Amino acid sequence: MDAVPALDEPLKKVLGPATAKVMAEHLGLHTVGDLLHHYPRRYEERGQLTHLADLPMDEHVTVVAQVADARLHTFASSRAPRGKGQRLEVTITDGSGRLQLVFFGAGVHKPHKELLPGTRAMFAGKVSVFNRRLQLAHPAYELLRGDAEETVETWAGALIPIYPATAKLESWKIGKALQTVLPSAQEAADPLPEPLREGRGLVPLPEALLKIHRPHTKADIEDARARLKWDEAFVLQVALARRRYADAQLPAVPRRPRPDGILAAFDDRLPFTLTEGQRKVSEEIFAGLATEHPMHRLLQGEVGSGKTLVALRAMLAVVDAGGQAAMLAPTEVLAQQHHRSVTEMMGELAEGGTLGGAENATKVVLLTGSMGAAARRHALLDLATGEAGVVIGTHALIEDKVQFHDLGLVVVDEQHRFGVEQRDALRGKGKQPPHLLVMTATPIPRTVAMTVFGDLETSVLDQLPAGRSPIASHVVPAADKPHFLARAWERVREEVEKGHQAYVVCPRIGDEEDGAKAKKKAPEDEAEKRPPLAVLDIAEQLARGPLAGLRVEVLHGRMQPDDKDAVMRRFAAGEADVLVATTVIEVGVNVPNATVMVIMDADRFGVSQLHQLRGRVGRGSAPGLCLLVSEMPEASAARQRLNAVASTLDGFELSRIDLEQRREGDVLGQAQSGTRSSLRMLAVIDDEPVIAEAREEATRIVAADPDLERLPALRTALDALLDEEREQYLEKG
Q: 268, 299 in Cβ contact below 8 A?
């Protein structure tokens, strides 16, 4: 890091300890380099800034104006009963309108001395209304003195950068701090290789940093943004390309199915033909399994597209080749469910070593944390001897005691529940690195897949199997139209009378521990102020009220594993009519007879989560119905989100909406920190072309120079990125 000492300089040395402390605690900025990469959120033009005529209510604004007059009033109040209370009223104008500023108490002295009529200044505060007039109470301000060279230069430029700020540190104070460190930008080492930069007409990094913080024209901002986006996309893609390259150097045992093996026997007993999509994706996977380097593939499938079947065929291909396959599920409920459906699909092929087993059968073993000691011993023995060709389990598979005879394939279900470290721990169980197949039912836009799962090749299953029914979705506005909710419960009764079953989903369980967590949510508006509806309360209300006489059961994450499994078995067998549950049913639960789902407080769930939940109905031949119950007012953002879910069954379209409405940091998991996204300039949805091109360039550069020996500045940028990522892993603990 010797090459860039100026950018590594701690801020407390340059700006003083007080400012540096606020920057570190509130903005996560520690060095000169961090501050230089704290980019303006937007820019105000002098003309735009000064329109007092169109100030938005309740928003934080920055205005430049001139003081028209200032008056100090005294008044009596409970704190100052003898008329000693002081209020300073300052009227400012900019030619388009007037605005009143008000200061109280001890806070009047400084502005009373400084805000004299004729003074020009920059004011920032929240617009409120008092006596039907707009005002700013106790605004922060910065005088624009013509004599002070620096201030004039800072604010008289055409474009004023507005920085992501905090209550403790206004935008212009950040701007001033940047003035101090900006000369260091000249020493920024440029991570982009010269030919790439020149070939794309991008400005050098020092120039981009100067232009982003001190633009003279809008073209300057465009130049700087184009360059800085490339940096972010490129450095991230180089990190991923190096990971792909390193993985491709590892040896793996090629696994090819036998023409007369267990896979062929399994295909023969399938009661249906595979969809075109399932065939195509299976071929991609089989081609990956046949190579001498570990396959790393992401299988994205719409809810209900038959991913489990595709994964099972891949596992059987590995068993054919003499290896073992492990499927890792995020919850015990899901592991048990997968185990049940796999053994049902395989029939006698899953009964290896027993009298009724088919000739080329194997054993399918379940391994979870809550199994009894004897069952667990048996399972571990079957894994170690190789008796079990297929194992399905939870995190228990990662434990040190678990030994495989010859692990050839790891299938990870619902990737967003697993960290990279857990993937790696399971991969370490093979004598040579096993092949890896990661499945997700959360549709991911292509660019996010390239960014988050950039170390994986991607296969997409977007066709639903024949015989699947469409799902109708409707929003039920419980507060505006209570009779709609009553009708929802009637619909549930009607479905049960037809011999079908229903889910009712609630955001929380309903014991105290849960209630405390629920209160921490940021209130979006009025309806958010009550705690979210709970499974235990709703189940009781329904059983006594609108669903009296029906068999209502409860399922949630804090039940004992055996109890959960018993409830799921009863529901799957049709011995319960209505299952009131938390999101434990979100992934993988398969009950084809369930046709209706009512999601209570639907606005408390994310778009992708609602889409996942909805995929639990309509899995049989009868049409599915999903009712999204919400008390949010029609105009709220939450209701618009629900309308979007109701209007389309296209998961990829919904994931785009989801991403546009949330901070990218929420979606980008591994590549991001919780507090501050490592993507400051790049917008994953809008900048698809940049990400795709950066990925190509990164792959080419890493293939030619895997250790980046000829590109020291790129290595430095990479170390900084990976350092941040390692810290985040530690934080996530």
A: no
